[in-house]
Fold this sequence. Notes:
This protein has one helix at residues 2-53. It has 55 residues and is mainly alpha-helical.
Amino acid sequence: MVYEIKNYNFNLIYTGLGNKLFIFNAFFKDVVNTVLVIVGTVFAVVTFFYAIFFT
């Protein structure tokens, strides 16, 4: 009985950690995607202006 309770608590903790990691992972992917989009946009704008002013 005690083992079952401990096991249950461990499963709760493990599931909680899994959920946190999953949320963090999703958040991290969103951040990376956003950064890539921003970098891509900046690069495109810089290239665009460079093409206008230096050709």
